[in-house]
Structures
1.
Amino acid sequence: MTVVVGCGAGFSGDRTDAARPLVDALMSYDAPRALMFETLGERTLAAAQLRRIKDPDSGDEPLLEEFLSPVLSDCLANHITILGNFGAANPDAARRRIQQLAKRLGHSQACLATIQGDDVRDRLHEFDWLAWVGEKRAISTLEQVVAANVYLGADALIEAMTQGAQVVITGRVADPSLALAPICYHHDWASDDWDRRAAGALAGHLIECGTQVTGGYFADPGVKDVPGMASLGYPLVEVERNGRLVVTKPPGTGGLVTEQTVKEQLLYEIHNPSAYITPDVVIDLEHVRIKQLAKDRVEVTGVRGKPSPARLKTTVSFLAGYQGEAEISYAGPNAFARAQLARETLRQRLSLRCPADLRARYDLIGVSSVFDGDAHLNTQHRNTTASDIRLRLAVEHAEKCVVERATQELLALYCCGPAGGGGIRRHHTQRLKTASYLVPRQQAAPVVTLHKGEGDE
């Protein structure tokens, strides 16, 4: 038997029409099928928590209806399980919205499940915290904690499917777990079948970022050409009971699936190829074999697994001062020299008017805006003839008034010169930072709640 899983989103803000070709392809399979949506990042979740603090009925994925409207009815009618972390900071809010959408589409009795327990913001004092590798901040030193979320695994999602859930709504679970859950459920793999669990988790890892594995992020014109970038197909993975898997995409869509695209995604965010840690299994990639079977069909075999970790990663997001950005453009003859003069003038003004602990960065967009610091700019672009440059100032400080004062100095360049500056924009916001820790697995307590029908609360 083969289980087929598609990924309809790789992040919050992904293309909202991507799932339609996936569902058309999934409906053609005579096999168990599932559709996952991965829409959470660490700061995405913190931003969702901030929205929930302002509005208790908010905090879930803003594009939820746009993602699901084109496909929810067909998924419910054709037994294609939907699993998504679009619950973000408020899985119940997402569940209510999906119930309302299902009712409008004629499926008022749809069975939904929420997975909660990842949000431990109110339990910080209860946990045995261990800092992640390289994390120097102690949990006790963090102020204004906005979000604290444990990365849950697939087991709670499997339980939800066992109870009959057609849509499984989660907050923070590990991205691969969204695919591993339906694979484990339909293949009935044992919880300690580490090699097969590793294969299922790797299947999730390969498709979790959407078109990264089907050519999108792979594309580099003239070096790695990809056809149909405007109609990229999102990935499908076919997983057999023995753990063999094939990565593919819907027929007729843009992009491509090759050994190269699969290898790039295989290595994405991998810290240790022999011990890629997920909540469900530690994946050993050292013996993985990748083989092109046909056009847009790549086989992956040889993955091995080790027992799941005793501790689970937990991300804590906290407010830490303010940040501000301001920009101004210089164009035409001698633009580079004028932009350099503006930058130096701004640097001197900030040293006069702002505290010494203000952190500031200056970019000349169009000449140098990626390299960190001015060394690259000074050594590589002294005689540039660029005629379209945007000076960007980014600042950070504990006090909002200092940040506002710093960006106001760029605004003043309008009339204080140099000549020809225009198109100024300013933006200020509270600064969100994250810290990573490990907590004992037994202290995490996922809760599965089933909701049958529109009126079930």
Note: The first strand starts at residue 2 and ends at 9.
2.
Amino acid sequence: MAALNVSVVSADQEVWSGEAAMVVARTVEGEIGILPGHEPMLAILAGGEVRVTLDGGEKLTANAEDGFLSVQQNSVQIVASRAALV
């Protein structure tokens, strides 16, 4: 199964990037889970956690505020004015 190529970026730095099995983020329309093969989309982030599950099951959590999430061809970009791993 293909992996997701994920990048979490804040205004001044790349917070994290790598391959993942799943991404869960909070958007203004509610929480969304993204798996490989997800349809292309663009969503506005609501302040809160972005949870990334790596292929081995390890989980990373970042707080992200004021930004957007983009999905295209198994690539997930999370761009926020402020983001940091917790």
Note: The CA atoms of residues 56 and 77 lie 21 Å apart.
